[in-house]
From TrEMBL, chains A, B:
Keywords: DNA-binding, Transcription, Transcription regulation
Region entry Disordered, spans: 344-391
Lineage top rank: taxon: Bacteria
SMART domains referenced in this protein's UniProt entry, alphabetically: HTH_LACI (SM00354)
GO terms of molecular function: DNA binding
Keyword DNA-binding among UniProt keywords: yes
CDD domains given in the database record: HTH_LacI
Domain HTH lacI-type: 5-59
SUPFAM superfamilies referenced in this protein's UniProt entry, alphabetically: lambda repressor-like DNA-binding domains, Periplasmic binding protein-like I
Organism of this sequence: Streptosporangium vulgare
Name under which the protein is recorded: LacI family DNA-binding transcriptional regulator
Pfam families found in the cross-reference section: LacI, Peripla_BP_1
DNA sequence: CTGTTAGCGCCTTCAG
DNA sequence: CTGAAGGCGCTAACAG
């Protein structure tokens, strides 16, 4: 049973003082190479590891990043945050940090947990997920000058990023609008014109963002999106119901972009069941093969199979052959860790641009001065479209 | 900006020595009530929190429990471990512990991580998930007398718990066989006789366990399970294929118990597509309503709709109306934390029985002596059957 | 019951 | 470049 090996043991073994060992660890350039190697060898053979607790007492840094684990959401989309969390754990480890988990039901209890954690385990930073309108967490953390990043833009009251005078904080996000735009474009390219959108009620930043990409693309192609979308709560049953309405509307859709895989799965059900029962709509007809024939409509969309595209590329999408917009979650996690470490160890000033990141250009980079002294950096990542049988 | 408040500040505020404050925190019974209240009030108004780092240096305990976050598995079952992890985080917090996360690809890297963690953040314990045949992690930890619990029985080489002389360690598990048995019984009660099983290739402890509950129940009802099951890799497509075989076999099944929701989802697809196309089998016929009419077979099963039951009660099961066996994951997590804290703070000896737990009787409680001195305790939880449209 | 003493392992001065 | 002090905040032993 190897009793705890300390820095003193290493020093003795290497024939140097404890400080030299410490220097080898923290400022190697101060130590002569020969000595350094000797110390490192001693560290290796003894299996020495610096005690975090002792180090933290001295430096005030815990090398811990705290984040919340969310309870299983109703839907199918829960896996998104899990994948993010896995990426975060891996990225953090690479940067020498560990993830500390906490659970919290609502904002109040989450902030209480912040308070608790800050006093006890003293994480070096927080990563916030699932940001929302009027999110009180960033303000609380900023007031106390606690480093943090959000995965998700700060959604202002208008649904636009930074629209409400938010002084800003580092964030990473995925460009949802670009994702739905790509999906819509793909369907346009396949000859579809009446491309619907199945989303959530207005007011959720993420949902509005995703809808906007669809609407923008349709408009750009000279198609009026009015009447082609439905808003509903997230869920398979809700999605199925809303999709039915769209498929049997006066101007029936022939393809559908959805704000989530749950909705898309519901839509798929709707398509299949309408297909199976050979139902008619006011101006369209679903054939046995899932092809929708739109009577008397102009354009080349006659006989095209009804297409559905989801969002998040969850395991279910893969399982049922649903095309979906995929978020680069590992990259997002890496981005969070990157922004955080940049806060801790500021890069040499005057370096390369500090906005933007891999996979896409940065955001607008507004001129807000950061009174907290932290650089207002952010990373906006581009999603990708994963095509399967459903489109 | 509230600068770090220390135990000295509290002592001064309360007019006592630092030691007294410490006593109020750790051994309140040693302090006169009046003093205690005064100190507590000072703690409250000052917002004092004991520094974990300092405490850890003194006590050697970090109040951290390390566990692994698994990468997204292929399937749909990933959510199981996430729900467990959430429960673990919540239970640990209630007991005054936090969860420290790590990621690891294989056993080798996981053990390297153990080593790293033990030397740096020094978690008080580990929780191991996804145990498997020949799992090398428990032995590694036990050799070093590091406290740990596994979620999952130690599967011996024969597939039976503790069959290979494993000296034992604390574990929590869910009785999978009881779950499939309940599912099978439910189908028997509904009049089914040819109840199939869709599982994984033999050799996986969990899979064999689940199959055994089905086989046992069928045998108990006087039905020979031979030829009524299929083994395949986990996955919707694999499940669909295997289910087709079963539905069109010489002795076609009329109901199906599955080892996972992925397989069950595939089976559901198979049932629906066979139903839709009105396919015939050697001795059965699927009607349009998904009813299987078995020609010339004895028993009351004619005209019964084909039933499918999954395992794990994942969000997808809920979404598509699939009946499924549900594991009590929050309880399992609580059980892990309970076993761990029992290790740290042993209950008064001669207390109540130390085996078994809520929801079910304990395991066999073999007579192995534990050379490490730790009590070999375990908790076997009972799953429940969640019925939906599919059964 | 309360106060004093000592030191956990490390890193940051400051001298050599 | 290397060695000698000092102390981060806390608690386990003792002394009063």
């Amino acid at each position: 049973m190897a009793t705890k090996v300390t820095i003193t043991d290493v020093a003795r073994r290497a024939g140097v003082s404890r400080q030299t060992v410490s220097n080898v660890l923290n400022s190697p350039e101060l130590v002569r190479e020969e000595t350094r190697d000797r110390v490192r060898e001693a560290i290796g053979t003894l299996g020495y590891r610096a005690s975090q607790a002792a180090r933290q007492m001295r430096t005030g840094r815990s090398r811990l990043i705290a984040t919340r684990i969310e309870p299983d959401r109703d839907g199918i989309n829960g896996s998104v945050l899990d994948r993010f969390l896995h990426g975060l754990t891996a990225s953090a480890a690479r940067a020498g940090y560990r993830i500390l988990l906490y659970a919290a039901g609502d904002e109040r209890s989450e902030i209480d947990t912040f308070d608790d954690l800050v006093g006890s385990h003293e994480p070096d930073a927080f990563v916030l997920t699932s940001t929302y309108h009027g999110d009180g967490r960033p303000a609380w953390l900023r007031e106390r000058r606690l480093p943090f990043v959000t995965f998700g833009r700060p959604w202002g009251d208008t649904g636009e990023p930074d629209a409400s005078g938010d002084p800003g904080h580092p964030w990473v996000d995925v460009d949802g609008a670009a994702g739905t735009a790509a999906a819509t474009r793909h369907l346009l390219d396949a000859g579809h014109r009446r491309i619907g959108f199945l989303g959530w009620p207005p007011g959720s930043g993420v949902g509005d963002d995703r809808r906007s990409g669809w609407a923008r693309t349709l408009t750009g192609a000279g198609i009026d999106p009015a009447g082609l979308d439905q808003a509903t709560d997230d869920g398979v049953a809700d999605g199925e119901k809303a999709a039915r309405d769209l498929l049997r509307a006066e101007r029936p859709i022939t393809a559908l972009v959805c704000a989530s895989d749950s909705l898309a799965l519901g839509a798929l059900h709707a398509v299949r069941s309408l297909t199976a029962s050979g139902q008619l709509t006011a101006s369209g007809r679903l054939t046995a093969e899932g092809r929708l024939t739109v009577g008397g409509q102009a354009g080349g969309e006659e006989g095209l199979p009804v297409r559905v595209i989801g969002f998040d590329d969850t395991p279910v999408a893969k399982a049922v052959g649903l095309s979906s917009v995929s978020q680069p979650l590992a990259e997002a996690a890496a981005g969070c860790v990157g922004l955080l470490t940049r806060l801790f160890d500021p890069p040499s000033p005057g370096g390369p641009g500090e906005s933007g990141g891999p996979g896409g250009p940065g955001g607008p980079g507004g001129p807000f001065a950061s009174e907290a002294g932290g650089p207002r950096t952010h990373v906006l990542l581009q999603p990708s479209l994963v095509l399967r049988q459903s489109s």
